[in-house]
Design a protein that fits this description.
The protein is mainly beta and 81 residues long. Helix content is 0%, strand content 46%. A five-stranded antiparallel sheet has the order 3-1-2-4-5, with no helix packed on it.
């Protein structure tokens, strides 16, 4: 398990709608440190990555829809002729 540093002053938007708050940093258990308010730590899954995930308004940590996902077409090898 890891811990996500939540920055409630940095809102995440998608299609002009506020959807949550920024995950600013992720640290393993036992490696968190003191922070200034309004930042706070929240437990998260091991695969959470700062700025790729966000804290949704429903309280769950989710993949940021603004994050560019790999595309099968553009990541395919280019054939040289």
């Amino acid at each position: 398990m890891k811990n996500a540093l939540i920055s409630p002053n940095e809102k995440i938007y998608f299609e002009n709608q506020e959807i949550g708050e920024r995950v600013a940093q992720v640290e393993p258990d036992g490696q968190t440190f003191e922070i200034a308010l309004p930042l706070y730590w929240m437990p998260c899954e091991d695969d959470v990555i700062a700025d790729v995930y966000y804290l949704a308004n429903n309280g769950s940590i989710q993949l940021n829809p603004n994050y560019a996902q790999p595309n099968e077409v553009t990541d395919a090898p280019i054939e040289l002729t």
